[in-house]
Amino acid sequence: MTISIGTRPLQLTLLPNDVLPEGLSWKIQEGYIRTVAWDQEGDSITLGLWGPGEWVTTAYSALRPIEIQCLTTVVVEQTKFTADQVSQFLADHIRTVEEIFWINRIKSAEERLLQLLTWIGSRFGMVSSKGYRLSLKELNLTHKALGDICGLTRVTVTKTLSLIRTKGTLQRISNDDLFIPNKLFLAI
Prior knowledge:
Layout: E1 2-4, E2 11-14, E3 25-30, E4 33-38, E5 44-50, E6 55-57, E7 66-70, E8 74-78, H1 83-104, H2 109-124, E9 126-128, E10 131-135, H3 143-150, H4 154-167, E11 171-172, E12 177-181
Antiparallel strand pairs: 1-2, 2-8, 3-6, 3-8, 4-5, 4-7, 9-10, 10-12, 11-12
């Protein structure tokens, strides 16, 4: 972790799996983050995925413990919210939690994983007229991480990805990149 101190706002550079300090508000300059809590058995519950330009904080969460975990190398800058920004922040976070909750309620593992990849692709993928290119490597989303987000095991994610690639539902561009055609995008 690198800390820059001076007249400018506090800026941190963190590595994958680092955790941002609690109670402060951050604007993501570079990289990808997830907010996570735990259930009574100690299993993680992903509350959101966030990328460049978005804000994160634990200050408004009723859940404890909650962490802001770095998925990739991240550069964040401490920020203070105005009243309007707090309203927008809360609306964005509520929408994201609802979308993840909706995905997690899909019964079929294949449909659940497809919907998760579609959601991630629409947020962080490269858009084209035919769909989205999604780099799992760029986001540091392993099969285990995808499973943690949508309530599947790593093995189920691996088998399901193989199945949907074989069917041609998703197209593999490289080992870590997928193409998600527009026809797969379901409304959340």
